[in-house]
User: Which sequence fits this backbone?
């Protein structure tokens, strides 16, 4: 687990062209991400979903960022783009 900022965590990350992972936002919401093509898609879920695997009804936000300039074999690069996407969303609230 990597910590960024006060509460943001990246609990699991898999690198590569199909990078994916999950963690918690600063606000305490779970999120997951996956790389699809040239973008990373981040889904932020409501706090405390009733099931272990959140469903579509639990999604409170979806954020997409380009990964064309990102090294998908580097955990730090992927973590930074995910952290920025989550932070941008939380600032907009």
Assistant:
């Amino acid at each position: 687990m990597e910590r960024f900022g006060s509460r943001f965590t990246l609990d699991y990350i898999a690198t590569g062209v199909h990078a994916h992972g999950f963690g918690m936002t600063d606000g305490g919401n779970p999120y997951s991400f996956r790389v699809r093509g040239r973008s990373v898609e981040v889904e932020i879920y409501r706090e405390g979903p009733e099931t272990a695997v959140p469903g579509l009804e639990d999604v409170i936000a979806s954020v997409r960022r380009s990964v064309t300039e990102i090294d998908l074999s580097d955990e730090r690069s992927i973590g930074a783009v995910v952290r920025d996407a989550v932070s941008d969303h939380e600032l907009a609230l």
Summary: The chain has one helix and six strands.
